[in-house]
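sorry to bug you again but im stuck and you know this stuff better than me. what follows is a protein written twice so to speak, once as letters and once as structure tokens for the fold. mainly i need to know what kind of three dimensional shape the backbone takes. anything you notice is useful, everything is just below:
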Amino acid sequence: MTGYIFDIKKFAVHDGPGVRTTVFFMGCPLRCSWCHNSESLRSVRGVSEEFSTVEMISSKRINGAKIDIDTLVSLLLKDRIIFEESGGGVTLSGGEATSQSDFIIELIKRLKKEDINISLDTCGYCDSESFSIIVQNVDVILFDIKVLCDDLHKKYTGKSNDVILENLKIAENSGSRVIIRHPVIDEVNGNMEHFRKVIDLMKHHNLNEIDILPYHRLGEAKWKDNLESHRFSRPSEELLQEMKNHAEINGMKVSIGG
């Protein structure tokens, strides 16, 4: 079985509990205007080179790499001692990992046999059958909530959020730990009215952990090849603190920046 990835990041500390190795998969159903991993949006067609080391994969970050599941599992298990000592594990990210659902399901099965902690970093846009299988077999779900207004969601991501909100219910009932990740972009959702609705949504689903992710400009240089170039702003520190305070008052465990 073969998957398509564009990077593997070791010693990640913002992609779930402990120290983690994060695998970035190619492909995503959304086209977020602020995407900072837009190289993941390239087609896997034409990606034919297979790589066997993290260094070789990272050197092909822009074009992507083809990798068989045995090789990937072997690479990830090399970090087992780090996971055990830090309470960490493997994070499946992207792009959108669930866009390669068959590969992901098999990868999770292999890693679980080795007792590896698994986090899924997801936009939530996936067919419900595959999504249900995946989230029931991971330990942590990092679930993005970007924009609640459906019209604005379509404008800035290219898709309705109906599927995402339905899959949030599946995540809630999966038995896995769910952490909401909320990117805050000043011109899109950078206001307390919207944030209060995010917190209300979390309370409705009995969720109590949120990472507030202020917009950054690290991905802008890549946009010329993949996305229409928008220019957004980081929210003020005052707004971020107000969001944090509001979440805490409502019983949430909060971090700013992941």
In short: The chain has a mean pLDDT of 90. The first strand starts at residue 2 and ends at 12.
